[in-house]
Amino acid sequence: MKYLLSLVLFCNFIVANEMNRIDMVFDNEPRHYLVFKPDNDSKPKNLVIGIHGYTGSATGFEKETTGGFNESAKKYNFIAVYPQGLYFYEDQYFGRFMRKNYVSSWNDLTASKTKTPTGETCAVDAVPYPKYSNCRGTDAGRCAWSSCGNDIGFLKKIIDDVKNNYDVENIYVLGVSNGGKIAHALACEFPKLLTGVMNVIGSPALGLACKPKGPINYIVYGGLKDDTVPPIDIVSWDKYFYTPIDTIANDWMSSFNCKEMKTFLYDEYDSIKETVYSSCNDGVKVTSILNMDRGHTYPGVNDDNSGYCKTNIQDEILINECRSNINIWGNDFLLERLLN
User: Fold this and answer.
1) Which SUPFAM superfamilies has this protein been placed in (predicted)?
2) Directed axis angle between helix 178-189 and helix 151-165, to 10°?
3) I need a labelling partner for 229 at 20 to 30 A (CA). Which of 70, 205, 288, 306 fits?
4) Assigned domain for 307 exists
5) In a domain, 119, yes or no
6) Among residues 327, 272, 282, which one has the least CA distance to residue 304?
7) Parent domain of 209
8) What is the pLDDT of residues 83-128, one digit of tens each?
């Protein structure tokens, strides 16, 4: 047992030393992000921003959610940046005992809302979630479960800082779950700044999904068995409403007048259906991917329930230490599409 603990701590030490942490104050809140640059002679020209999900962390995304995203940065020679979502601790009481429950999220401008043009983002009997203090005095309402802060501005600040420090030509965003939602929002907001965006299991709230303001490559990925952010069925297990991925793909396809559609089926690892829309205005490509075998999880990892952890570079966060997670094929499958 002592050997295993030492091994975990040693691995976490290596991960921490591989990455630089940048702390800042943004909108009067302490914020930070992590940067990993491959140690090789070839200067990376691509930047990939990996965004964690609800109650996740920057290091949790790298080590557990994706099963070692830094290794992919080395393989594909890109700079990886991992932002940390705004977080707080909810007091949970169990009789006389109290536990600090870590909550982190991103405000994609849909998870922080209740009202939509056609109704609300959750059912009357939806499961309630902890509320951020920065949602007080806003129109967030009872369905809101994310921060109400300016996370889009925070991520734009990160991009500007990294561009000033590194000679990058292409900027990509890959977000998971709640991170996928804000990746979608960034694609709408900054098409001239970003080369491509991938939204993994992160459909926006029903009735609030934005549409692109300009040409940008976009990929949406869903798991057919996902009942947390369902890609087809709209209603989640906790009775929140989400936009079907076909609706998202059709919105983007229509926006860029895509004339060709091809469908591909894969079954080497999971059973996957991929629909690619091409011959679009401005050379845009839109892709919809549906994994028939998975639920609310990143593809290719052994441990589905992962990413809710930290390593010692984020030691101030009160959550469990990350464990090693192995990704056999998922990072390659997604990045080969995002980067090409």
Assistant:
1) alpha/beta-Hydrolases
2) 70
3) 70
4) yes
5) no
6) 327
7) 2-49+58-85+151-338
8) 999 999 998 877 778 888 999 999 999 999 999 999 999 999 999 9
User: Strand 97-105 and strand 86-94: pairing?
Assistant: antiparallel
- DSSP designation for 62: I
Does residue 115 fall inside a structural domain?
no
* pLDDT digits 0-9 by tens, 245-293: 999 999 999 999 999 999 999 999 999 999 999 999 999 999 999 999 9
**Nearest Cα to 154, choosing from 105, 121, 213?**
105
Number of domains in the chain: 1
Edge-to-edge, what's the strand order for the sheet holding 217-223? 20-26, 29-36, 78-83, 46-51, 170-176, 196-200, 217-223, 286-291, 272-278, 260-266
Residues 299 and 330 sit within 8 Å (Cβ to Cβ): yes
* 15 to 60, 104, 217, 329, 332: CA distances (angstroms): 11, 21, 31, 21, 20
pLDDT band (50, 70, 90) for residue 32: very high
**CATH code for position 240:** 3.40.50.1820
Instruction: Please tell me the predicted confidence (pLDDT) of residue 58.
Output: 99
Is the separation of the CB atoms in 101 and 91 below 8 Å?
yes
| 97 occurs within a structural domain | no
3-state secondary structure of 332: helix
